[in-house]
Design goal:
mainly alpha; disordered C terminus
Length: 259
Amino acid sequence: MIPSRPASLGLALRRGFVATYDHLGYVVFVTFASFVLVSALLGAAIAAVRTLGQLGGMAKIVLFFPAVIAFWLFAVGVYYYAHKSVHHEYPTLADTWTGIKVLLRPALKLLALDLIVTVLLLGDTFFFLSMKGGPIFQIVGIVCGYIALVWLMMTMYHLPLLVAQLGMESGPKPVVVVRKSFLLVADNPGFTVGLFLVIIALAVICAVLGFVGMAVFYLGATAFVLTHALRELFIKYGIVEDEPETVEDSGWPGSDRQI
């Protein structure tokens, strides 16, 4: 039986940011590459909207889907790399592309599910809160807002769980990912809320830094932090074994020298 211990948010964050620093070159490269690609696709979408001004609102929204899909798939590859790194599997840059290929279909299904549920929940929240028909609408709006908040916290675990499911019998199925993310949030509310606030704070800091923060740091940093956070919860449930703070590195597989 694998020994377990309570999950520590502080330890997860420390390990996540240390891993980000250890792989800083990779973090900067893939985050910047995704930023350039998504920016180009967004620019093309904006130009198309201006050129085809007579299109309906939904048709205009569809033009932005390539940018959303590109960012999501980039993120899938980065989380795959982070997962291999956390488990000391010595990933390379090529593993980013490998992760995208291996998880392409379930990742796209999960993206569709995330977008639909998020839009519905946020739409219902704003709809009921904006109605002027008595307190009942306000109460329903608040309830929808609470559910939306819980859902957004669940989505933090979606990508790291999707990758982790590759090594589990249930496989990387979107429904399984959503179910497990709900159970993690329900059983670890304090850990999840703290993690959620840290991710928001990191986004604010990167946004304040402008181009530098969002373009070269945010995607890669959040991938390592959230992957380590999920590993910390897995340790709590005895799914994976804890490790000492200092891990002896025996070198790359097949290498006789020490690093």
